[in-house]
């Protein structure tokens, strides 16, 4: 009975992840357009609410659906998405959910401070993975080189403030949802 409930929650978070990719603000960045979506919110809440393997299953299925050509990513889908500089942020959702779930299971947070610490750690993992992929994808996939400062401007400085606000909202939501997911 518990596994049926967990699979139902996993499917719910998968649907929320797909829907949240369509709620987006496109940022006019100089090199490659970036999107602020509510996917980070769903990724963090998923990590707090689902056990590690169910959270990873949810995000893994999301990535596989997108790579199979189902337009679930913010800019569509398909195997060619691996060549996009922003694909690292898609992988970052998996890592963010996994790290939030793992830390939640180990620390068992009670206070908002503990939730924010775990959420900030997940956000940091998301940004590290996304920015490293973003920077190195240009010479490998697009056969061009951009300076590190421009890469950080596009993939970090432009979006960090909105993403910090999204992380705080996700932590508050996850804390209030914990009564349903114990």
Automatic annotation (TrEMBL):
<feature type="transmembrane region" description="Helical">
    <location>
        <begin position="115"/>
        <end position="136"/>
    </location>
</feature>
<protein>
    <recommendedName>
        <fullName>Biotin transporter</fullName>
    </recommendedName>
</protein>
<feature type="transmembrane region" description="Helical">
    <location>
        <begin position="31"/>
        <end position="50"/>
    </location>
</feature>
<keyword id="KW-0472">Membrane</keyword>
<dbReference type="InterPro" id="IPR003784">
    <property type="entry name" value="BioY"/>
</dbReference>
<keyword id="KW-1133">Transmembrane helix</keyword>
<dbReference type="Pfam" id="PF02632">
    <property type="entry name" value="BioY"/>
</dbReference>
<keyword id="KW-0812">Transmembrane</keyword>
<feature type="transmembrane region" description="Helical">
    <location>
        <begin position="148"/>
        <end position="171"/>
    </location>
</feature>
<feature type="transmembrane region" description="Helical">
    <location>
        <begin position="7"/>
        <end position="25"/>
    </location>
</feature>
<keyword id="KW-1003">Cell membrane</keyword>
<comment type="similarity">
    <text>Belongs to the BioY family.</text>
</comment>
<feature type="transmembrane region" description="Helical">
    <location>
        <begin position="82"/>
        <end position="103"/>
    </location>
</feature>
<keyword id="KW-0813">Transport</keyword>
<feature type="transmembrane region" description="Helical">
    <location>
        <begin position="57"/>
        <end position="76"/>
    </location>
</feature>
